[in-house]
Amino acid sequence: MPMKLPRLFKRDKRHASPLEYFFLTLLAAFMILPLVYMVSTAFKPLEEMFLYPPRFFVRNPTWQNFTDLLIAISGLSVPFLRYFFNSLFVTACVTGGTVIISSMAAYPLAKYPRMPGAKLFFNIVIATLMFAPEVTQIPRYLIVNEFHLVDTYAGLILPLLAGSYGMFLMKQFMEQLPVEIIEAAKVDGASEWTIFWKIVMPLVRPAWITLILLSFIGTWNDYFTPLIFTRSEQMKTLPLMLSTLSGGPGMVARTGAVAAASLLVTLPTLLLFIFLQRYVMETMAHSGIKG
């Protein structure tokens, strides 16, 4: 008889009051304002962009900014698809690697807490969360440069794989899994590898889907890492391409093209969140496991 897996989350049946709905609606509207302004700016004609005081909503929408963007990227020394491929390839590798490495590191810490050195290792990982990413940039660059990985895909991917937050998130979820499930699988002859991939990972799916989203957004929008670890134009990503469009001669004339490009670069992360928001909300609102 197949084993019935437990539900990971309890549902709160208490309904919010009208005042709470009103407050949350105002908060959601306030938080979405930057996105609305970005969409509005992408369709503003050039004369509306430099009005003072600035207008929040566009009055005479136009597609000219996107036409200007096509003209601008056609004049780049490197094809636009190269920038897009670099961003997509690096983001996919970092996201996939982060989920796998974080999950595999979290599993023994969560289910075998008495393992020698487990508590010390976890405390060290948690301690790294206190440091700003900028603190590690210099030693990270020295290591990447020492291994001759500057201006390579490996230099853009490897330093971003071992994220302490990802391991912390996965460990907190895996700790909620009943030990009886793993013990029953061992009695049936399942190996640790089988237990990890076929039992543990499906049960913590909301957690690693949330980690996919967070890692994708962080890597896709990362400007600093490609700026430091790339030298050639062929290795640059979309955020660096935007800086190329917004600088140099003709900067004012390309303002609309930059606004259109900013919207297009943001769309993948927005669409990904729309498709995965159910798992993100489930992750953020979890409250334990029902037996």
In short:
The protein has 15 helices and no strands. It has helices at 18-31, 33-42, 46-49, 64-74, 80-111, 118-128, 137-146, 153-157, 164-174, 179-187, 192-203, 205-220, 224-229, 238-246, 255-284.
Mean pLDDT: 83
Q: What string, H for helix and E for strand, traces the elements in order? A: HHHHHHHHHHHHHHH
For the report, how would you describe the main beta sheet?
none
Please name the fourth-level CATH homologous superfamily of the largest domain.
MetI-like
Indicate the multimeric state: single chain
Helix content: 55-70%
Overall tally of structural domains? 2
According to CATH, what is the topology of the largest domain? MetI-like fold
What sort of overall outline do the alpha carbons produce when their principal axes are compared? globular
Query: Class of the largest domain in CATH?
Result: Mainly Alpha
Secondary structural class = mainly alpha
CATH architecture term of the largest domain: Orthogonal Bundle
- How many alpha or pi helices? 15
Distance between the termini: 18 Å
Number of strands: 0
Runs in which pLDDT lies below 50 for 5 or more consecutive residues are 1-6, 287-291
